[in-house]
Amino acid sequence: MFCDEALEAIEPIASGELTPRGRIAEHLATCPNCAATLERARRLDRLLRSRPVPAAPPQFTPRTLARVRRERWRNDQFLDVGFNLAIAVVVVGVVAAVWLAMNFSGFTAVGGQAVGLFGTGITTLGRRLAPALPLYAGAMLLLIAALAVWWWAERDTAY
User: Fold this and answer.
1) pLDDT tens, 35-79?
2) How far is CA 71 from CA 63, 64, 85, 91, in A?
3) Of 69, 53, 73, the residue nearest 61 (C-alpha)
4) Using N-to-C axis directions, what is the helix angle for 3-15 and 32-50, rounded to 10°?
C-alpha cells in the first residue's frame, strides 16, 4: 500500500468514522509519516470538539435557504433556456430536412394542391355551419349561465 491511499483514510479514522483494518492498519503501524499525520489529525479533531460551537446569527437559516433557492432557480433557468434552444434547433433542423426532401422529390406541387383542397374544405364547412352558429352561441350562453348559477348556489357563505 502507498502513503497516498492511507492518507485518504486519515480524516475518517481520526474522527472515528472508520476503524483502520487490514492493509491500512499495517501501513499505519509501519510508516512513521502516516502515523504522525494520523496523530496530528486526531489532536486537531479533539481540539475542534473541545471548542464551543458558536451560535448561528439571527436569520441565518432563512437567508441561506433563500440564497440556495435563488441559485437553484438560476441554474434551472439556464437549463431551461438551453433545453428550449436545443429543441428549437432540432425542430428547425427537422423542418428544413422535410422541406428539402419535399423540394427535391417534387412533393411541393402536390403540397400546394393539398393546401388548396384543405382551404376549399374549410370554406365548405364554414358555409354549412353558418346557419347553425346562432344555435351554438345560444347553447354556449345557456351553459355559461347554468355554471354561473351553480357556482353562486355552491359558494361558501361562511364569510
Assistant:
1) 999 999 999 999 988 888 888 888 999 999 999 999 999 989 999
2) 12, 11, 21, 30
3) 69
4) 30
- CA 142 – CA 137 distance, rounded (Å): 9
Cα dihedral angle (137, 138, 143, 144), rounded to 10 degrees? 70
| Residue 1 burial (C-beta neighbours within 10 Å; 0-12, 13-18, 19+) | middle
- How many residues make up the chain in this entry? 159
Output 145 or 34, whichever has higher pLDDT: 145
pTM of the model: 0.38
Contact 10, 20 (CB under 8 A): no
